[in-house]
Design a protein that fits this description.
two-stranded antiparallel sheet
């Protein structure tokens, strides 16, 4: 088993006000260290099915197109390799 955290939490694709949530919104709430601060180099890759979607991608789109048969959207956050 890995000592890395596993997070499974419901995150709605639309806010109560009706605004569309993006992958970036999800990361801000669930794993904010995955997002670099202004001027910082990228520390993590966010990967779904081997691709790195844009943080502006709507969660609803990701869910409809990249969820597994179990209806879960599996998102991997991987440290960026350093030289």
């Amino acid at each position: 088993m890995s000592d890395r955290p596993f997070i499974q939490k419901l995150f709605r694709p639309v806010s109560p006000e009706g605004n569309v949530h993006t992958l970036g919104d999800l990361l801000k709430e669930m794993y904010p260290t995955a997002l670099p601060n202004d001027g910082e180099p990228k520390r993590y890759q966010v990967v779904i099915h081997g691709i790195e979607p844009l943080l502006e991608t709507p969660l609803q789109w990701l869910s409809e197109h990249l969820s597994h048969p179990d209806n879960f959207l599996h998102i991997c956050i991987i440290p960026t390799p350093t030289d």
